[in-house]
Structures are given as C-alpha cells and as structure tokens.
Amino acid sequence: MRIAIIGAGISGIATAIILQKAGHAVTLFEKSDKIGGVWAMSYPNVRLQNVGEQYCFSDFPWPKQPDQHPTAGQIMEYLEAAIEHFKLDVRLSHNIITMDETATGWSLQVAKGSETKTHDFDYVISAIGQYSGGKRRPEFKGEHLFKGEIITEREMKDLSNFEGKRVAVVGFGKSALDMATMASKQGAQVEHVFRTARWTIPFKILGIHYSYPLFSRFGSVMMSSWAHPSTMEQLLHNKLDFVVKGFWSSLSGLFATQAKANAWFKGDEAKLRIQKVIPEHPFIKDLRSAAALEPTQYYEFVAEGKINPHQGDLVAFSEKGVLLKDGREVEADMVVLSLGSEKPRFPFMPEKYRTMLEKETDGVQLYRHILHPDIPRFAFAGYNHGFMHVPAAEVGAAWLCAVLDGDLTLPEIAEMKKAIEYMSEWKRNHIHFEPSRSCAINTRFQQYLDIMLKELEVSPYRKSNPIAELFGRYEAKDYSGVYEEYCKAKAKRQKPLESLEIWT
User: Fold this and answer.
1) Angle between helices 389-404 and 482-492 (to 10 degrees)
2) What is the DSSP annotation of 63-105?
3) CA 434 to CA 454: how far, in whole Å?
4) 192 has which bridge partners?
5) Is CATH 3.40.50.80 correct for 143-337?
6) Are the C-beta atoms of 346 and 357 separated by less than 8 Å?
7) 2-133+342-498 CATH fold
8) Same CATH fold, 143-337 and 2-133+342-498?
9) What residues contact 47, with CB distance under 8 A and at least 6 apart?
10) Can you give the residue ranges of every domain in the chain?
11) What is the chain's pLDDT, residue by residue, as a tens digit (504 residues)?
12) E strands within 180-254?
C-alpha cells in the first residue's frame, strides 16, 4: 500500500520502520522543519525519564552511547541516524491542510511554503503526538495588571532568564517540577503553586535505579489495568487484590519517607514544606502520562526553602503576582504556567471525523489504541503512549500490518465500541484526569504489549529464562524480531487470526 504518516516524531518513525519491513511504500509528512516532534521544541536541559535502553528502536541500538537519561539533543541525533539507516522518506516543512476520502483511500492537500500539492494514498496514519500540539494556556483575570512576565515552559529557551528573579511555577507535572528545580538552580527564589500535589517516582528506590523494580515483569504485573492477559494476573487482581493494594501502599510509604528524609534535622519549617508536596491520595492513581520522575534536588530545595510550595487554585493575577482562591497573594517577577498540553486535535480531518475524535475531554477513544471503528483506512501511531513507548509503537505497527494484510480479523464495529467504552470507563475510574488519558497506556505497558503479541500469536515472554522473565528489566531490545516472528508464524497458519476478548 501507499501509506502516509502525518508526523515524524519517534512514533511515526517507529511505525514507518515496521510498515516498510512489511513491503508498504511509506511517506512521512512533518509540518516542522525538524524531525523529533516534542523533542524538537523542548525546553533547555530536558531529559528523557526512561533510560536509553528503553527508548530506542528494537533492532537499531544507539550508535553513540547516550547519557543514562538521554538529553533532547541526543535523542534528535539518534532519530536522524535511524532515518538514514532505514532510508525513510521524510518530508520536512510539509503541512497537511485537508484530507478527502476517495474510493480507494485518501487525497491529501499538502502545503510546503506557498505551494500546495495533492497526494493520493491508500491509507493514512496520524502520528502527530499527544504533546507536540498547543500547551494548555487558560486566560486568567487581571493578567494585564501583572508587571512581570507570563510564559509557558515551552517558551523558556534560556534558563539564565531565571537568574535573580522570584519565579512562580504553576502546576505539578513533569515540566512544572523541572521548571521549579531548574529555576532554583539558577539562583531564583521559586514559589511553586499547585492545586494538588502529585506522586513522583524516585530516581532510586532503596538505592536501586527505579527502572529495575518497576520495569521488570514482577513490577508491571502488580499494575491494576483494564485488562489482565494471563490467568495468574487475573487471579492476583480479582481474588488477591489485597496483595496488590498492600504492595502499592508500601511503595508509596517508602517514596514518602524518602522525600521526607530531605527535611530531617532541618527544623519544623522544612518538615512543613515537605509535607505540602506529599500527596494524600493513593500513589497508583497518579501513574498516568504526566507521572513525573523526581527531578534531582526538587525535594532538597523544598526542604531548604529555595522552593516554597503553595497549595491552592490560581484564580487571577495581581500587579505583584498571582492570587489564589483562598485570597492569598503569591508575589513573583515571572510566572511559568506549566499546566500540561491540550488534548490532541485533528484540523486536517473531514469535519465529521474530527468531531468524533475531539469530542471527549480526555482524548481520543480507540480500539487497541490504534483504530477508530468508524473511520476507514485510517489509524493512529503513538496513542499507545507509555513507559515502554517505542516497543508499543512497533508492536502496534506489526498488529496494524496484520489488519492491513487481512491476517487479523477484527470484531464487528459494535463490539469494538464496547471494548473502547469499557477501557475508557476503567481509566476514568482509576486514573486521575489528563487530556490524553484515553489515548495512552502509561504504566500498563506490559499488559498492553502482552495482549497485542498474543493476538499476533507471538510470545509475549521475551526473556531467556523464568528468573530473568520475572525480575529482569525489560528493554527495547527484548522486542527485537517481533515482526519477523509474526511472519514466520503466519506462514504456518491455515486461517487468519482473530481479535481476542478483553480480560478483566
């Protein structure tokens, strides 16, 4: 097939690699003059929360060893190398204006500069990403009165702008914690304003890098999920749920203790400040896309008073700073609104489809996080975003290849919609709100990958022995060869695959 992928971030590139392996003619259209999606527009000093071994293509290791947590620049270099290695057709500065259905696919109006051309494709995949769109930027009363500067973190291009200022950072996601910590390192006095404190994942858990306990199957199987793909998991979560609750309660207690340790021997004021940034709700509800790895020194700076926490709703600006709902005024010279991203939008889609995709406040509702049952010859890449994002994109692309080849029989549309509704309701009941909640798998990556591989009749157990399978850290290379394994099994099958029921 002739397939267009809209967006040349890591999800679009991962999908293109698999589709190209399957023999499809793939073209990636990127409206920016750079590849990389959100990494091309990131703020200074931002780092990947995962380690490099988990954030790479399964059969293309990093040509140059990156930092343990790679920088945006290192990731951009890696993606450039991958495009060259796989000889992908990437067209920069190509903006999709409209898409029109044809008898056999789609007709795309594509603008480059002042020139617009029409391109016909059999199939289109959206890989525009959850975070590369607009930042959430509500308008507040009194902004015109404020004498300082109001920005989002995406507008912060030079950290030296923090120097010597009193900076109010609003929000409690990854970018907000990064901004607060970076500003403090630049010598700013930071006022951290947030509605609700969120749990963060420590860099180390009892001295062990967090990715080892949380990215092993032992850690991931303890995750509550809308689906549990094995009999043992179903038993654990349905009959022995007290074990699961005890596990997460113990872990959150440990995380809280590690954070509080920063205030030991520093007086009552330090303890009070730390207590303000320790959540009262269960840890597991914060395991979503916005879940943040604890920035180095954040809690240390809170304990020392370099970061001063203020819990409350920002309702307005004053001449000197921001006003909270309870009447408090927080003075500042600069306010960084770090309130997350807008939900994904699809301005290039026909209106009837755009309405379907954008109507929910918590993001796109999809079958297997890849297909919308009512939109023909169209799929999504990267909407299975999670802590093993690249393998999920690759396995999702292999699954899509099986659908395109007619080797995987999908359920009736009504059944797919039931599965979508079930999953969406589970997420709404168990995961705190964010605009991308419905189009992400977050920390449920192992359950998702296991289900997708079972549907392809490829083993989801990727380690060499049972001990490694249970306690070894999962990495991208563990999923190397998945598409080839699928093809080998396909050659021996006598009939197409069938989509499996969701396990509860």
Assistant:
1) 30
2) SS---SS-BHHHHHHHHHHHHHHHT-EEEET-EEEEEEE-SSS
3) 29
4) 169, 309
5) no
6) yes
7) FAD/NAD(P)-binding domain (3.50.50)
8) yes
9) 67, 69, 70, 71, 72
10) 2-133+342-498, 143-337
11) 999 999 999 999 999 999 999 999 999 999 999 999 889 888 888 889 889 999 999 999 999 999 999 999 999 999 999 999 999 999 999 999 999 999 999 999 999 999 999 999 999 999 997 766 677 888 999 999 999 999 999 899 999 999 999 999 999 988 999 999 999 999 999 999 999 999 999 988 989 999 998 889 999 999 999 999 999 999 999 999 999 999 999 999 999 999 999 999 999 999 999 999 999 988 888 887 767 788 889 999 999 999 999 999 999 999 999 999 999 999 999 999 998 888 888 999 999 999 999 999 888 989 999 999 999 999 999 999 888 999 999 999 999 999 999 999 999 999 999 999 999 999 999 988 888 888 889 889 999 999 999 999 999 999 999 999 999 999 999 999 999 999 999 999 999 999 988 766
12) 189-194, 200-201, 204-205, 208-209
* Single-letter residue type at 215: F
Q: SS3 for 218?
A: helix
The H or E element spanning position 182 is helix 174-185
